[in-house]
Q: What sequence folds into this?
């Protein structure tokens, strides 16, 4: 191969330069994919780490003592609950005001509590268990017997009640069982000491297991200070046997673990043994436990974020509970009104520019106007719309102001794409129609517009995409009322605003992402539609 | 004839519609200026621009937007520093190095990027980029000029890529052949012939990118930190001109001097955007003329 | 073995060229002699431009081109034995439509040498002057060397393009209808130039204009539908063609 040294050098330079370019291209593609996938992923799937006073050990049948049957708590199937902590159960039954399921399941649903008639050993024990130091509130309804309880809970939305374990055998799908978590970890104060800025933070369920299997010997190993671990278990008798079963399922108690024989002995041991950690019931601590310090346990909670439910239910508490149905509908209305207003102006204006106007000074000015309008930042529109339409013209915050302002913003997009589409229609089409005796208007309406329709539709779809994504303008012209819009002048929250609101006020980051995922879907849809349209345009032009 | 008159009426109607844009621009300009100008009765033009003392609710209030001008500047500068090389590279790739099919796929991707709403970019910046900045540089919040610049760079990328690609494609094929026939490599041809020939268009693209970056509101609002004082470095929290308007509009009293000052800020923004817009027009015209 | 009087600069053997499925060149053989002007004539679309572009591998730029056969330059295969960049330094090309770069006259001519690593200003100055003189343009342009190349007339632009090629110091200069976009006076100047250039370079010229071929070339090849119908010394082709088709074309019956 005849090749000079200099040529070799320039070829090498070319390879390096092209390598850099490839790198940048792949980098850009990765960024794009990453943004879309990240928002979609977090929109669909949430994973949070939450601290609780109780462990993640759930009990469906709760043994209270050796005298009465175990109790099973049931809820209406529509309540999206997996389990409740002891404290949450208590709050639901004893709170002075009627509780809602929102804080526990993000549902905008009132809690309807049910109890069995007092007087039996079972009911009294259970009620006592629920009440703790408080009292069951006045909102609880009494069901005559377990069968009736099942019937009432299965037919009342948001209901929660309880039945003895024996009655739980044939509940089938009528009601859902709510597991209760009531096992807490308690530690001696020494475990929580701060030495050299090191302090024991929360434990995970796995660490707790390891401690009671004797595998963790020093608090250092779980982020605490240098102090030997002393695991202590409560008595093996009922009801504490449950604890034993859960923490040491095979029944073997390692020698490091101290076994106590009475509850008093257990509490005493925890209070006096440095480095001690033990498991007992939450209500034991509340009832007897000064000096017993609860160690928080961190649980990983994950699940689907953007669910059908989210899309169908209406929002509550500014989006913290419920879904986003009304917001989607509001967004739809915004799109509708904006299109109704801007499409005629944009399309007909473009028709003038292409079909009628003489290509002189006037057209240049009109085009310049469109280009300039396109460059104005959205916040200036927001400023303008908010002061002019909302205040000065007194149109108020609502769809009218928003539509007018957004129309100005998206007009350039529609005009530009319509112009391109019209220009692409061959002159021969027009000439053919005119030669047949049609008027100019008829030609435009019957020949040119249909031929240009994919292009025009592209512009409209793009305008829709922009409208949906717009936020700065809408904050000040459309407002943030998240209920279904009531009329042309009422405030209405749309998707982009909802996202921003939930983010800025830190209402729920998971839901912020869920809303974001919906927005991304809309963008993908817009993108897909325009690509298809352009494909159709090219095919019609014979490419 | 009747139909002739009808046609004339239709034509005039269409003309009116076509003028809506121009009328809107004129009206908005007029409105913003007339609402914002009264501030200068209270404070001098140069004091407004060059003071970084923004205390609109103090007694007496002071309105200096230097901190925001500087904020907008740094955020935009950083964004372009990152976006121009990448954008040029991708544009060159699409116009000169890739197959038509790949170019189409990348173009779809770029359009997708362009269509993503700014709040999503803000979300991404806040939850993904800010923690990285936090970890890498030890910044307490991870928000600030750097994060905002990164987010803006991604947002501005599609503009630069698109215009760079079209400008490069518009360079006549015979220039490229002339260079290659002289024994230049493809890369040498790109660097010494094609890109220089597309210079006007590329500059137009960059200036357009600047305009977009300066005008961006929501994404920077979510990641720039919103601190109304002069920034000290790339990790400082900052507030841009657009952020200032958005933040204060909510609680500025109607008809108050505070509200007026926001319009005045709007005037400054407006002037800047107008300049960039006109520059773009000029450069685009120049690039089209070159073809002829 | 007998050594030829005139050396063969380029030898083409059995060249076939396909654009996809369409065969544009069929079994072309040609010998291009050193320091001579070889003209390629024929009706539009007959493959002569395609052929000349094969000689400096400009067809590499087009996808879906298949080439079989053998082309050697100074005895070396231009595909396997020569790096394409090197090849194009040796075999230059002037195009139909003048295509000066949007730079100054000086920069246009200096483009080639700069690309090939010459940085020294004095050297470049010398090369620019020499090339412009070689293209018979120096006297007209020496006072506006740094003005834009696009500001000069069409004929001057084409001579500039020739100077640009000469600056690279090639062996062979390919010309693809170099005067078809120019007025008669410029055309005649360039024809004189070609006559001069052949002393130091080997020229291959595609032309639509038979009279031009007759005026300036030493040997002529007649292309028709991708096939070389006849090759030979120019007088023979024009006054004594062996093939009827050649005769018909020469006498203007078609083309």
A:
């Amino acid at each position: 191969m005849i090749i000079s040294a200099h040529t070799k050098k320039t070829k090498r330079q070319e390879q390096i330069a092209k390598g850099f370019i490839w790198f940048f291209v792949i980098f850009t593609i990765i960024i794009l994919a990453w943004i879309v996938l990240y928002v979609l992923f977090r929109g669909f799937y949430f994973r949070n780490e939450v601290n609780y006073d109780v462990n993640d050990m759930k009990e469906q049948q709760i043994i209270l003592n050796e005298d009465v049957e175990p109790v099973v708590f049931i809820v209406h199937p529509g309540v999206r609950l997996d389990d409740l902590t002891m404290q949450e159960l208590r709050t639901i039954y004893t709170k002075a005001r009627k509780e809602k399921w929102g804080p526990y399941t993000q549902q905008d649903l009132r809690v309807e509590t049910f109890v069995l008639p007092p007087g039996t050993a079972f009911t009294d024990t259970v009620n006592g268990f629920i009440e703790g130091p408080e009292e069951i509130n006045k909102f609880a309804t009494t069901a005559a017997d377990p069968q009736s309880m099942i019937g009432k809970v299965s037919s009342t939305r948001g209901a929660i009640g309880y039945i003895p374990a024996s009655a739980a055998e044939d509940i089938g799908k009528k009601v859902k069982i709510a597991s209760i978590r009531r096992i807490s970890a308690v530690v001696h104060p020494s475990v929580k000491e701060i030495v050299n800025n090191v302090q024991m933070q929360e434990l995970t369920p796995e660490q707790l297991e390891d401690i009671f299997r004797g595998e963790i010997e020093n608090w250092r190993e779980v982020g605490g200070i240098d102090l030997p671990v002393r695991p202590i278990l409560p008595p093996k008798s009922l009801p504490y046997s449950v604890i034993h079963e859960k923490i040491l399922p095979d029944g073997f108690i390692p020698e490091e673990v101290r076994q106590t024989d009475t509850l008093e002995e257990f509490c005493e041991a925890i209070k006096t043994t440095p480095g001690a950690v033990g498991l007992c019931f939450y209500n034991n601590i509340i009832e007897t436990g000064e000096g017993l310090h609860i160690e928080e346990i961190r649980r990983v909670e994950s699940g689907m974020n953007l669910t059908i439910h989210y899309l169908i239910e209406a929002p509550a508490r500014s989006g913290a509970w419920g879904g986003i149905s009304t917001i989607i509908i509001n967004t739809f209305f915004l799109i509708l009104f904006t299109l109704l207003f801007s499409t005629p102006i944009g399309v007909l204006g473009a028709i003038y520019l292409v079909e009628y106007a003489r290509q002189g000074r006037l057209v240049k000015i009109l085009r310049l106007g469109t280009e300039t309008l396109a460059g104005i930042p959205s916040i200036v529109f927001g400023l303008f719309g908010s002061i002019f339409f909302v205040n000065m013209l007194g149109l108020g915050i609502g769809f009218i102001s928003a539509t007018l302002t957004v129309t100005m913003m998206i007009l350039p997009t529609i005009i530009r794409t319509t112009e391109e589409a019209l220009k692409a229609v061959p002159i021969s089409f027009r000439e053919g129609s005119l030669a047949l005796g049609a008027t100019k208007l008829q030609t435009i309406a019957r020949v040119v517009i249909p031929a240009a329709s994919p292009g025009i539709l592209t512009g409209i779809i793009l305008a829709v995409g922009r409208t949906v994504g717009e936020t700065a303008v809408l904050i000040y012209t459309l407002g943030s009322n998240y209920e279904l819009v009531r009329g042309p002048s009422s405030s209405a929250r749309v998707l982009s605003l909802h996202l921003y609101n939930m983010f800025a006020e830190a209402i729920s980051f998971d839901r912020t992402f869920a809303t974001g995922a919906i927005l991304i879907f809309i963008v993908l849809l817009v993108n897909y539609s325009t690509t298809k349209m352009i494909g159709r345009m090219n095919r019609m032009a014979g490419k | 004839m009747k139909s002739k008159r009808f046609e004339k009426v239709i034509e005039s109607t269409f003309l009116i519609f076509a003028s809506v844009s121009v009328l809107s621009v004129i009206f908005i300009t007029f409105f913003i200026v007339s609402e914002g100008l009264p501030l200068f009765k209270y404070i001098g033009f140069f004091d407004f621009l060059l003071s970084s003392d923004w205390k609109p609710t103090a007694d007496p209030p002071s309105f200096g937007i230097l901190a925001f001008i500087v904020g907008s500047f740094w955020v935009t500068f950083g964004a372009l520093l990152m976006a121009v090389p990448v954008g040029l590279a991708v544009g060159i790739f699409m116009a000169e190095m890739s197959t038509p099919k790949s170019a189409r796929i990348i173009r779809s991707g770029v359009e997708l990027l362009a269509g993503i709403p700014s709040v999503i970019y803000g979300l991404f910046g806040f939850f993904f980029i800010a923690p990285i900045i936090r970890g890498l540089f030890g910044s307490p919040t991870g928000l600030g000029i750097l994060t905002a610049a990164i987010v803006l760079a991604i947002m501005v990328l599609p503009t630069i890529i698109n215009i760079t690609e079209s400008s490069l494609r518009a360079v006549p094929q015979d220039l490229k052949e002339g260079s290659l026939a002289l024994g230049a490599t493809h890369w040498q041809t790109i660097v010494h012939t094609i890109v220089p020939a597309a210079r006007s268009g590329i500059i137009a693209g960059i200036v357009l990118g600047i305009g977009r970056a300066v005008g961006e509101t929501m994404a920077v609002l979510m990641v720039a930190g919103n601190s109304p004082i002069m920034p000290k470095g790339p990790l400082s929290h900052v507030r841009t001109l657009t952020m200032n308007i958005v933040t204060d509009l909510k609680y500025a009293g109607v008809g108050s001097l505070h509200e007026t000052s926001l319009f005045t800020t709007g005037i400054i923004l407006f002037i800047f955007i107008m300049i960039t817009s006109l520059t773009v027009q000029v450069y685009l015209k120049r690039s089209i003329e070159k073809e002829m | 073995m007998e050594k030829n009087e005139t050396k063969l600069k380029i030898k083409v053997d059995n060249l076939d060229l396909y654009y996809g499925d369409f065969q544009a060149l069929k079994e072309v053989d040609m010998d291009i002699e050193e320091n001579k002007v070889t003209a390629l004539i024929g009706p539009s679309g007959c493959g002569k431009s395609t052929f000349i572009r094969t000689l400096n591998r400009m067809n590499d730029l087009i996808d879906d081109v298949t080439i079989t056969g053998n082309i050697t330059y100074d005895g070396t295969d231009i595909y396997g034995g020569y790096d394409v960049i090197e090849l194009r330094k040796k075999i230059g090309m002037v195009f139909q439509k003048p295509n000066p770069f949007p730079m100054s006259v000086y920069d246009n001519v200096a483009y080639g040498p700069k690309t090939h690593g010459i940085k020294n200003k004095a050297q470049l100055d010398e090369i620019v002057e020499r090339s412009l003189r070689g293209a018979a343009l120096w006297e007209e342009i020496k006072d506006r060397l740094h003005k834009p190349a696009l500001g000069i007339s069409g004929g001057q632009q084409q001579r500039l393009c020739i100077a640009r090629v000469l600056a690279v110091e090639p062996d062979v200069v390919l010309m693809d209808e170099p005067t078809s976009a120019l007025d008669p006076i410029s055309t005649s100047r360039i024809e004189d130039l070609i006559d001069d250039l052949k002393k130091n370079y080997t020229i291959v010229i595609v032309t639509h204009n038979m009279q031009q071929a007759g005026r300036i070339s030493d040997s002529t090849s007649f292309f028709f539908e991708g096939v070389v119908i006849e090759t030979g010394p120019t007088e023979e082709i024009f006054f004594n063609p062996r093939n009827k088709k050649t005769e018909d074309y020469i006498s203007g019956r078609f083309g």
